Amino acid sequence: MPEPTLRAVSARAAAKINLHLGVGAPGPDGFHPLATVYQAISLFSTITVTPADDWSVTCQAAPGIAVDQVPLDETNLALRAAKLLAERAGVTHPVNIHIAKGIPVAGGLAGGSADAAAALVACDALWGLDRPDLAELAAELGSDVPFCLVGGTARGLGRGEIVSPLPDPGRYDWVLLTFGEGLSTPEVYGEHDAIYDGLARPEPDLPDALIDALAAGSVTDLAAALSNDLQEASLSLRPALASPLRAGIDAGALAALVSGSGPTCLFLARDADHAASLAAELTSYGEVLTAHGPVAGAMVVES
Ligand SMILES: C[C@@](CO)(OP(=O)(O)O)[C@H](O)COP(=O)(O)OP(=O)(O)OC[C@H]1O[C@@H](n2ccc(N)nc2=O)[C@H](O)[C@@H]1O
Ligand SMILES: Nc1ncnc2c1ncn2[C@@H]1O[C@H](COP(=O)(O)OP(=O)(O)O)[C@@H](O)[C@H]1O
């Protein structure tokens, strides 16, 4: 077994958005086949792992982020990630996992998945493992976790865990409208199934227009190609989202859509200055953040 080092190690991972989220009919395991395009954006969780006598998790919120819904028991996804890696690598030394949370919780931004990806990378470095197969462990932890390891912009197939990078040389500025009360991902998928009950659902695919827009770095073409099959279900569960989505377009956003399973609303801006002015127009609807993408995946950082 590798000898543990005594130092603490920090790693950070980014939130994701789905530029396209195509959802098919669920398989026998209840999971939905996806054809999605993920983009990592500049909202981060930083995980610090420190050798300790027992396994534990602590969490601290960045300004504007509410962390009361983050579990501090064995269900915490970062703790599950660390324990899974320890078990597979034969490590028996517990760690404290400290989460500095900069990603809104239960917002359709893969905050828990980002924490898990960062925990894998941090523990891998702390324990001196240098394992090349973190993606396999990531897929066991959740459908979004493999993307959070990789970052950038990538297509996601299967249930979202089969990730391959896409050329994306541009920079995109986003305004995010977030809400204190999240939406449950399984409930949103369930609502999607209820809406499509009895209706045929084609196999999901990736639109060429989106891939081309990204390759060209064209913000206006990207705006025209954004789509989310879960948006209708999110709006059905949270009808109040319709009004800020409309307000964003009225204020000049190039596009407005729900992020993944929601309820975070995304607004695409022309550039960073435009994002700042759009953000100022939307403050009456919820907590407003700005971010840009694509950014890198999970990586070790200075503590
Ligand atoms: C919808 C998406 C879009 O990227 O993310 P969020 O917007 O919630 O962050 C993902 O599909 C969420 O991924 P993730 O949150 O990792 O899901 P998992 O832990 O693997 O699964 C949680 C639950 O979501 C449902 N689920 C998830 C993925 C999938 N392809 N089909 C599903 O039906 C299942 O009910 C599953 O029990
Ligand atoms: N480290 C974590 N951070 C946030 N939520 C977590 C974490 N571990 C487990 N959870 C649970 O996962 C749920 C979904 O949170 P999150 O991953 O932020 O949202 P989403 O699935 O919408 O992207 C939360 O309600 C919470 O109960």
TrEMBL record:
Pathway: Isoprenoid biosynthesis; isopentenyl diphosphate biosynthesis via DXP pathway; isopentenyl diphosphate from 1-deoxy-D-xylulose 5-phosphate: step 3/6. The active site is at 16, 144. It holds the Pfam family GHMP_kinases_N. Residues 76-152 form the GHMP kinase N-terminal domain. It catalyses: 4-CDP-2-C-methyl-D-erythritol + ATP = 4-CDP-2-C-methyl-D-erythritol 2-phosphate + ADP + H(+). InterPro entries: GHMP_kinase_C_dom (IPR013750), GHMP_kinase_C_sf (IPR036554), GHMP_kinase_N_dom (IPR006204), IspE (IPR004424), Ribosomal_Su5_D2-typ_SF (IPR020568), Ribsml_uS5_D2-typ_fold_subgr (IPR014721). ATP binds at residues 104-114. It is an enzyme of class 2 (transferase). Its EC number is 2.7.1.148. One of its GO terms (biological process) is isopentenyl diphosphate biosynthetic process, methylerythritol 4-phosphate pathway. The keyword ATP-binding applies. Keywords: ATP-binding, Isoprene biosynthesis, Kinase, Nucleotide-binding, Transferase. Residues 210-286 form the GHMP kinase C-terminal domain. GO terms for molecular function: 4-(cytidine 5'-diphospho)-2-C-methyl-D-erythritol kinase activity; ATP binding. NCBIfam families: ispE (TIGR00154), PRK03188.1 (NF002870). Belongs to the GHMP kinase family. IspE subfamily. Catalyzes the phosphorylation of the position 2 hydroxy group of 4-diphosphocytidyl-2C-methyl-D-erythritol. This is 4-diphosphocytidyl-2-C-methyl-D-erythritol kinase. It comes from Nocardioides daedukensis. The lineage of its organism: Bacteria, Bacillati, Actinomycetota, Actinomycetes, Propionibacteriales.
